């Protein structure tokens, strides 16, 4: 986009939707002209109408307007009408932000008008600091998709990508495709009537994958090193033979699956004793029987079998898996039917604590009951193996101790993800190794061996892990998104799941990978700011090499170059601005979002002197959740204090503390920062942004003390997108608190 | 009972074969809605859910000698609510009947005694003789208790006589269905069918 050499600024004030009735639009125009220094100022009684939009288009086309401030509704409303990609656009929120939230009546006319005037000043100030992002289109951008792991998830992902027209490279550690599915005799049913165990289908899928013209299958291979970014990953593939080849790809799907929890860790449940097997062990016996009577390893035909559910799972003691693996109930139901289908006289008992068959599994459960599988609610306490096995358990329905004898006992152990290196462990090891610890150096090499992706990112060789060691996933809102842009986790590596869920997951991840390569090729951001052409620009001459940006970037987008300067990988960047918020010398900015675009808005607000008794409260609100909640409060006409001035930020993580100190220095009486829920059940679109903001603000007390201000002058709050009622209450409570505290003593010095 | 026999299908199989609607027992998913829905649940030693589990656990004696299923008043709340659509009321009566026929049902259980008196009264002539049935009930716990019960009910009895709702002459034998022989043959045939179905055929 070729922006004209001389920028021309214009402001448009809408008087529709009641703005004209509640506000003095003429006065707003004057503000834009005189204080906002806009070259062209117009008003319209219906700005988002075809005529209104055409007026703006004409000004851009004929009058050379390059920068617009639209003073109308919220930036979240009428986004399509007010989309002018060739111009820089700011929005002054007069509708949701002023007339819908300030109390009705002539008593409030003055504060309402002041609020609107400030928003016009802020909109004009912001747009003056904005540039139209030029984008950063890459000439050579790969659209191939690398899939790591050749199990059901991996094969499905590769096939989905290939069928959509994208080349796929499938890397499998073992000598054959199929993964864990190869070990199964049959699988649970995926389709109506959900009654009979089905052929696995892994071999058929493997044949389809191997024969596909767009899929390159690399067996006996692992990923030795991954470098680059979406659109330009260079992946070194190590063959078992020792040779290393390089594959260039645009995105990566990690489908490395799971390993069954080690049965040997369950000696109290007979782990390690003869004729006590895990579910995989029973599959092996069933495969060996090949449709005939299932026999134990000692050759005895099995006449009775007991399945013990939740073996080493849902464990509260901390010794075993704390979670439920989700698939094991259905798997035991399936395995019980292996016996019943062949011979209804074989005794099959399932000892469960809570039988959970997600999806349509309840029909499968019913079918097994109908076949005579006995289900007993109980908690197994001890299993003894041997020729006559015995399961001791507490019958939870009859509330008594009981035991059952059987020829074979099957323990339903859980799924342990193959997620590679735990980055916390990695960080500690690398730190120790750098300080010369020999043991740590050896451990670092061991960790590199178990790494799946071997990313050469500054943040470590694999994607971050979440609860219980599962690979990263924004599991509340965007399940396939990880904190490594262009790398998507699919299948049981990301959370426990069954085969059907894994294949659906793989399809989703493949589609996300396709979006990633397409966005990368266009120089655009991936989720959640899809299509954003801006990217962080750093003024290296001012950089002090403090490394905060590289450490705090939630997405590992920033490496360090050989001179220890931050090296930005735009394709990995999600444009949250956490680096901008982190930078103590403020050398990082975006073309349309910078320390200046927000800072100038803060400074543009007219601060009344202390005798007017009108406080000013700055709100920095996350544009994803808190700002929509503020808008919703307006839509519902929940009135809140007219003393607040709200500025949307990309993420609370992008808030630079200079904004807070500037605001307080220039006489604001309080600052409210509104971000998303943080912690384990975070809702932050950028995962760690709001957590970083809370962390940074916990350290701001010293600064406030130096200024001679109370710590309550700055509030950091969690606001969800649904908190419209809460947000109005929070504002009003805080305004009251400021009222009690008294106005800031800083007024008049700014 | 040995460990090896527990939680096996032996007793469940017996129930499925011999108890009316017994084939449904395996389909119970132990949710407990029946137990929670039973208006007389507090009076039961074992709610239906537990009885089903006991059957699956092979507790033959305990189930068949239990008085729980005799407490059922056929309100049908459990049938309406069972998410697995088990005809629980019918299974309760089926179990009670089976236990009774095996002679394992608890002695002196009031429902059982009343039902037995009613049946014995009914099959004599094909009609229930209310006078002899009432007297049989009064005297089921002995002569002295019978006199006491009769005296207690004296006013009600006289009232019924005055209102022509009770004929004292019924004491002399009372009336029955017209075709006595046909009635007896029908009952005999029904008994044979039931015996065959429930495993009592000789």
Describe this structure as you would to a colleague.
Chain A: GO terms for molecular function: 4 iron, 4 sulfur cluster binding; metal ion binding; oxidoreductase activity. The complex is a heterodimer of chains A (750) and B (202). By secondary structure, chain A is α/β, with parallel strands linked by helices. Chain A is built from 21 helices and 29 strands. In chain A, the strands form eight sheets. A seven-stranded mixed sheet of chain A has the order 13-19-14-15-16-17-18. A five-stranded parallel sheet of chain A has the order 7-6-5-11-21, with helices on one face. Chain A has a four-stranded parallel sheet with strand order 2-1-3-4. In chain A, helix 9 (328-342) packs parallel to helix 10 and helix 16 (595-604) packs parallel to helix 18. Chain A is elongated. The model of chain A has no long low-confidence stretch (mean pLDDT 94). In chain B, 55% of the residues lie in helices and 0% in strands. Chain B is built from eleven helices and no strands. Chain B has helices spanning 9-18, 33-37, 48-56, 60-64, 77-81, 88-102, 110-125, 130-138, 143-152, 154-162, 180-197. In chain B, helix 7 (110-125) packs antiparallel against helix 8 (130-138).
Please give the most extensive interface between any two protein chains, plus how many residues each contributes.
A-B, 22 and 18 residues
The main sheet of chain A orders its strands as 13-19-14-15-16-17-18
**CA gyration radius of chain B, whole angstroms:** 20 Å
Shape of chain A: elongated
Number of separate helices of chain B: 11
CATH superfamily of the largest domain in chain B: Alpha-helical ferredoxin
- Bulk shape of chain B: globular
% residues in beta strands of chain B: under 5%
